[in-house]
Amino acid sequence: MTRVLALAGIALMASAASVEAQGEVVPLEYFATYQAVDDVALSPDGEHIVMRRLTARDGNYIIEVRETDNLTGNPVRLGAERMEITGVSWISPDYLWVSFRQQVRDAIEGVNQGVYETKRAIVHRTGRGGFRELNDDTSIARIMWGDPDYMIIRTAGYNYNDRLEGESIARLQYPDFYRYNIRTGRQSRILRANARFGGYDLDQQGNPRFASELDRGTQTVTYFWRPDPEDPDWQEVMSWSLNDYAEYGDYGINVVGFDPDDSSRAYVLAHNGENTIGAHIMDMNTGEIIRTIYQRDDVDILGAFFEPDTDREPELAGFVFYADGELRRAFISERAAEIQNMVDAAFPNTRNTVYDCVNNCAQMMVFSQSSQEPGVYYYIANGQPVVIGREYPQLIDAALGREEFITYTARDGRQIPGILTLPPFGQAPYPLVVVPHGGPWVSETRAYDEWVSVLANRGYMVLQPQYRGSQGYGIDHWLSSWGQWGITMSDDKDDGVRYLVEQGLADPDQVAMFGWSYGGYAAFAAAVRQPPVYNCAIAGAGVSDLDIIQRDFGGSPIQRELIEEGYAGMSPNEFAEDVRIPLLIIHGEVDQRVPQYQSQYMINALQRNNVPHRYVELPDADHFSNTLNFDNQLTLFTELTGWLANECGMPTDQNPAR
């Protein structure tokens, strides 16, 4: 492994000496605009395509439905007067599931209790009859592609404006399962849920077959299954302790499907005594793993994928993982592998996902993306592709940089993966911006990244380090982050800077950090750590006080121990007097995940110590990017690039100082 990585580093060095610009510097407004189209999907009968289309760069989405045999004809258009349409998908050949959002409060009511409320509705593809609203807590448990008149839903019949006096809290927390008639709206209960079980999994017929139980006293999770879906009795499968992180991680056993030929056997994702997560077959009668289908020693298997057919019940097609930062697939379906190979041959320069197909895939939808192509949707009929829409057509001529996957050695010897984006202008050594992801317990992969593209288009090289704590690289990489916030987790980021300087790629006097959420915490930490590695830091929606965030996040018994042990280390607000670099702080006004007071703690500490800084608040913005409207995003990108060029002292030809 070491030899291969070393050779990869040499190849990167040779190719990165200079990059010929292909594309243009574009206005920041182009990046601040939402996707022009989204949720593009083919109907299960292959006769229609639905999508959300943006009405204006600062407008809302409408729904468009087009006929596949007349794509240039006039579409059916559906909109909402008071609410924002946030999602649309097919639930049958004629009916659509639509999600809405509306801001109903001016201030958050607590952590993860924001100002937005959501609604869901069903509508005929023609709009006939209007939107049929569902209870606000309704969720889809399973789409029954083999029985298009029905789907399985979960609901307790709860709406946000309901009065709760006299209601059972357990009833609201554990909604029941129903078989729902899509055409008529009638529903019949198929399983009464209770406070004992959670984590249900359904078989292909829509029957809840697998569930889990948490014993809060012993911190033990027990798995159960129903051998007979008509029998209400549950049979115990196995148990594991939440404290046994070295054996099970925070993952336990994840059922992703059942053997269609033997329902007593389940496809599961689990560590099974190894550092990484693998795909296995489990005997549900004994709880034993009887065969490993696919497991790697370098990265986790992160999920399963199914054949893309939507006109029948699809079968399990394989498993996904990230290797060298790329989304990879391990196929168990020869048919699915052949389809993927055919599509990849047709579109060789992008990462391609076949996500809908009908009529034995004579018709299909493909989404293609790369660092150079933000996203394009193709409809393919009988081998002929048609572009249905591009997510960001305004960026078609933009210079977006070129990404590479690297691995470098941290000071304690740990190997740290990273995604490096080379700017499309100039030559090494480049000005560098380190952009750590949020989470921190998440995965990150090579794909179009809006914030990275803004920076690359302005002449900056960008490093996205997969520091310890990043998931997808095994239990050890995850556990090594516990209690290390601002300590070895920050070492990993700083050591990435050192590596790129040693390779001649980064200018040691032109380095900054920008992050959001945990990444914002990392930027706070970078500002207080000594000696300074960075010219400046930009902290977005960042955590500054770990004691408070542990209290806020550690609500459930499962979360509490994870958060108390994992989210520990250095609180930057306690060391504000050590800040020696320009610090820009940005936060959403109504952030429910990391409340604005986390930034305010840091601001107060900076003011007490007379440390210069700048604070920018984004009106009506929550934590996640889908609540940052056009004006918010334009403000963010303007402040970010302005700070880099001016206060940071890192101007480029594409981002000059004012």
UniProtKB/TrEMBL annotation:
<dbReference type="Pfam" id="PF00326">
    <property type="entry name" value="Peptidase_S9"/>
</dbReference>
<keyword id="KW-0378">Hydrolase</keyword>
<feature type="domain" description="Peptidase S9 prolyl oligopeptidase catalytic">
    <location>
        <begin position="452"/>
        <end position="648"/>
    </location>
</feature>
<protein>
    <submittedName>
        <fullName>Prolyl oligopeptidase family serine peptidase</fullName>
    </submittedName>
</protein>
<dbReference type="InterPro" id="IPR001375">
    <property type="entry name" value="Peptidase_S9_cat"/>
</dbReference>
<feature type="signal peptide">
    <location>
        <begin position="1"/>
        <end position="21"/>
    </location>
</feature>
<dbReference type="InterPro" id="IPR029058">
    <property type="entry name" value="AB_hydrolase_fold"/>
</dbReference>
<keyword id="KW-0732">Signal</keyword>
